[in-house]
Design a protein that fits this description.
Blueprint (H helix, E strand, L loop, with lengths): L9 E4 L6 E9 L3 H8 L11 E9 L4 E11 L10 E8 L1 H14 L2 E2 L4 H8 L5 H12 L3 H11 L2 H25 L10 H20 L1 H9 L1 E7 L5 H9 L17 E7 L2 E7 L9 H16 L2 E7 L6 H7 L7 E6 L6 H12 L15 E3 L6 H18 L9 H23 L3 H19 L5 H8 L7
């Protein structure tokens, strides 16, 4: 995508492959107008941008009619790529698309590379690199929460926040470098307190963004939840309840689940990925032991663990021992088969749980981390998952701009570290030359995030994940 190739006129099918109602072929570049006129002679002498024209698409050399099409014209500076662009809507037959593409290539266009239309939009400053990445995120989003986050980033929410940070760092650097220039004259260009206050603002903004990455990752990729507990406590039945399908085999035989069974659902716009794991116990069977090893690995890698126990048996010492291996901050207890409990038995179980060693490290009321459920009750899904989604959305409401990309997280974590070093140097009264070095590194990291500074590796990392035609 570098050098003379940037001046080529490119074409590709932008809709998914296969048979459908329509397909859209995109043509973009400096020769787009002359090429489309040869294949679409029905176009008037003066084309209006953002207007659709109907006619027959032809092969100019043979005068063969290929299809009835709609051609939408976008003039330079008003298209997605920033170049002259034509979008050809034809009938959704792969053979028709092939004939149209072959015609355009014969006339002088070349097939587009992966993500090349979005790359050109970036190079022509129609969008920055954060927005370019959000295009792919929007296309690949697997939940409504993920698509909303990607759309906000495409509309510039994160970019504006980063631009403000860049502006504050640039202001600080300008004053620091001015202090270096006038140091021989004994002049103080900016007071230390004023400079530290501006850097504190930058640090706070970067810290907020870095802290939002975990929430953003969950919005983008979904929340991974492992169902854990002793054998035969109803983990597989609860999985089927949550997924609203018979995903896992359920029997009364202990150790039925021997591998991690995965399934996903969506609740209130959030993608939830459930991992039903083998019951944890000392097993003699080699296959079951392998399943239990996978269970422990799934627990460690999950965002949240639903620890299931049999409410009719109470909170056993074995449950306590297994739960003690988990992080209480990301563990929720599900007291299954609670429909079989009397009110008095349930009250005593609540008291037992409240005094459990497992809850001693959890701030607040321990009982808030326990759900009394029944895998046979369809309202269990609503009870547990809506509460979970509500808590997540309440956390998400605390911030607007949110990170969801590992690349953004890496760059901004570096920027944050350098700003903190700069503040320490300001407070220690070190020379402006030392402060400027770390602050320049921070500025560079922010600019790399936005794409104001980039290299081939960054471009490859971003655009090679795109599909052809976008």
């Amino acid at each position: 995508m570098i050098g003379d190739r940037d001046r080529d006129t490119i074409c590709a099918v932008s809709t998914p492959p296969g048979v459908g109602g329509i397909s859209v072929i995109r043509l973009s570049g400096p020769k787009a107008l002359s090429l489309i006129r040869q294949a679409a002679p029905f176009l008037p002498s003066h084309l209006e941008s953002h207007r659709v024209y109907y006619g027959i698409f032809q092969q100019p050399r043979t005068q063969k009619s290929i299809d009835e099409v709609l051609v939408t014209w976008f003039e330079r500076g008003r298209s997605f790529t920033g170049e002259e662009t034509a979008e050809i809507s034809c009938h959704g037959n792969p053979l028709i698309c092939r004939d149209i593409l072959e015609t355009l290539v014969e006339l002088g266009a070349r097939p587009a590379d992966r993500g090349e239309f979005t790359y050109r939009a970036f190079m022509n400053q129609r969008i920055d690199l954060v927005q370019a990445e959000s295009v792919l995120a929007l296309i690949e989003s697997r939940s409504s929460a993920a698509s909303r986050l990607a759309l906000r980033q495409l509309q510039g929410e994160l970019s504006r926040r980063l631009s403000e940070i860049e502006s504050d760092i640039t202001w600080a650097l300008a004053h620091i470098e001015a202090s270096i220039d006038f140091s021989t004259e004994g002049l103080e260009v900016v007071e230390t307190q004023v400079l530290d206050a501006r850097l504190e603002k930058v640090e706070t903004s970067l810290q907020s963004l870095v802290a939002s990455f975990q929430r953003g990752r969950v919005m983008k990729d979904g929340l991974r939840i492992a169902l854990s507990g002793r054998p035969n406590v109803g983990k597989s039945s609860l999985l089927n309840n949550f997924l609203e399908e018979d995903r896992a085999i359920v029997t009364e035989i202990a150790g039925t689940t021997r591998d991690v069974v995965e399934g996903e659902t969506e609740i209130d716009g959030i993608r939830l990925v459930f991992l039903d794991t083998a019951g944890l116990r000392d097993a003699d069977d080699r296959v079951e032991r392998l399943g239990i090893e996978k269970s422990r690995k799934a627990q460690a890698e999950a965002d949240l663990v639903f620890f299931v126990f049999d409410a009719t048996e109470g909170w056993q010492a074995a449950d306590e021992a297994l739960a003690s291996e988990l992080d209480p901050k990301r563990t929720v207890l599900l007291a299954n088969k609670s429909d079989l409990l009397s009110a008095e038995t349930k009250r005593r179980l609540e008291e037992r749980l409240a005094s459990s060693v497992f809850f001693t490290s959890i701030p607040g009321k321990a009982i808030e981390k326990v759900f009394f459920v029944s895998a046979l009750d369809k309202t269990t899904r609503y009870q547990v998952l809506h509460d979970l989604a509500g808590r997540f959305q309440a956390e998400q409401a605390e911030t607007s701009a949110t990170l969801s990309s590992a690349r953004h997280y890496e760059r901004l974590l570096k920027a944050l570290g350098n700003v903190r070093l700069s503040r320490e140097q300001v407070k220690a009264g070190l020379g402006s030359e030392f402060i400027a070095v770390d602050l320049k590194e921070s500025l560079l990291a922010v600019q790399e995030t936005l794409g104001k500074r980039f290299d081939d590796q960054i471009m490859d990392r971003v655009f090679q994940e795109f599909c052809i035609g976008k």
